[in-house]
Design goal:
The chain has about 425 residues and is of the alpha/beta class. It is built from 13 helices and 15 strands.
Length: about 425
């Protein structure tokens, strides 16, 4: 099959950056008027997403607390991730560089929870270790969520709900989401946690479209909700997007849990990861080809159901147990569906091109990306070349070349 010529294109997005992360962490914590005092124990919650510089940010938080005379420890604030086990969640943190050795403080994990309140007539749960501390501090990125749209999405409130609730809370809240809606559940449970638990601070992380730390801001409990709502709007403005729509074929070199909670960021691909809420999107993509699963996913391929074509090398890396735990906990079994599978990248891509109607492969609208987190440079097919020349935010890099494969039919990486 003849394949379209592809041109590498550099996209231009806003690029604010924090140049001295430890200093920025210390400055914002010091300026937030926090209630933490000398001798207090502080449980610092860290999550399971691929947040840039998360080890540096959490480490700087711990050092600031120690310098204050407090006694911090870190706990995994993640629901069902890490296979829904304490050891698995410790492994996830360790993979992000968060260990007792690197952080200089204890790292404590349990799946035990205690009830601290009530919402929707159901218990509100809190990690047992966190409940025993004098204060709880949360460190998380604020960003558009992959499952729903609202004025509070993915960030500190979600961590107070799903993260602090652990596996038991995650199952309960996701089921409640089906009935009451994501934003209402996250907001209601988060407010109950703020009212009943000893939340000392939330440290919000914003990233620019280049997967870099763009802004850090700490809030006390009273300022946390308004602060997160404000920062979500900023995060939306800085988010990367695909350069064109509609798209016949989107080639995704890799997907995975360290890329997005849904494997491929649904805000980029425009496909929801759950069927329970409308998901507005202007991205119109006919077929998605996912070629590989990242090593850092530990076999969790949740979100593979959003692809239409895939490869044997990706499918062979799937560990269905954590994939299903993640998908069923979210009440979204479609996220674990395995699409049409081919032995090589070339076969997967050629079969996708065979399903675009009367458009010839050479004229197909194809975009190729490394993953949905890395969109600074992408490849676009000849169908977009004229528009590339007209766009000031797009810069061609090199000359057009055909899609390149090695002798085994594997796509040569970007």
């Amino acid at each position: 099959m003849a394949l379209p010529a592809m041109l590498r294109v550099r996209q231009t997005f806003p690029r604010p950056r924090v140049t001295d992360i430890p200093r920025a962490v210390g400055d914002t914590l010091a300026g937030a008027g926090l209630p933490v005092r000398r001798g207090d124990t502080v449980a610092v919650g860290a999550g399971s997403r691929g947040i840039a510089n998360i080890d540096v940010i959490v480490g700087a938080t711990v050092r600031w607390l120690r310098d204050l005379g407090a006694r911090p420890f870190i706990f995994p604030a993640m629901g069902s991730h890490g296979g829904g086990t304490a050891d698995g969640q410790l492994d996830v943190l360790a993979h992000y560089g968060i260990t007792e050795q690197t952080m200089g403080c204890p790292v404590r994990a349990t799946m035990d929870v205690v009830q601290v309140g009530e919402a929707f007539g159901l218990p509100v749960w809190l990690d047992r270790f966190a409940s025993e501390a004098d204060w709880i501090g949360l460190v998380n990125r604020v960003k558009p969520h992959t499952d729903f749209k609202g004025s509070i999405e993915s960030g500190l409130f979600k961590m107070m709900t799903i993260g602090l609730g652990k596996y038991q809370g995650a199952i309960q809240y996701h089921r409640t989401n089906v009935t009451h809606g994501y934003e209402k559940v996250i907001t209601s449970v988060g407010r109950e946690i703020l009212g009943q638990a000893r939340i000392g601070f939330g440290l919000a992380v914003l990233e620019n479209g280049y997967d870099e730390t763009a802004h850090l801001e700490a809030f006390g409990a009273r300022e946390l909700e308004a602060g997160e709502r404000r920062l979500l709007e900023q995060a939306r403005d800085w988010m990367m997007r695909l350069p064109f729509t509609p798209v016949d074929i989107l080639i995704v070199e890799e997907m995975g849990k360290n890329i997005s909670g849904s494997g491929m960021d649904t805000n980029v691909i425009g496909r929801p990861s759950n069927p329970h809420e409308p998901f507005p999107s202007d991205q119109k993509i006919l077929w998605i080809v996912a070629l590989d699963l990242t090593e850092h996913s530990y076999g969790n391929a949740v979100g593979i159901g959003n692809a239409d074509f895939t490869t044997r090398r990706l499918v062979d890396k799937i560990d269905m147990k954590p994939t299903l735990i993640n998908a069923i906990t979210a009440c979204a079994p479609n996220g674990a569906k395995v699409p049409a599978t081919f032995d090589t990248d070339r076969e997967a891509i050629e079969n996708a091109l065979a399903c675009i109607g009367l458009t010839t492969p050479e004229q197909a609208r194809v975009i190729r990306i490394k993953n949905t987190l890395t969109l600074g440079e992408v490849e676009v097919s000849a169908a977009y070349f004229d528009e590339v020349r007209r766009r000031a935010d797009l810069t061609p890099v090199g000359d057009p070349v055909p899609l390149g494969f090695d002798a085994a039919g594997q796509l040569i990486p970007l």
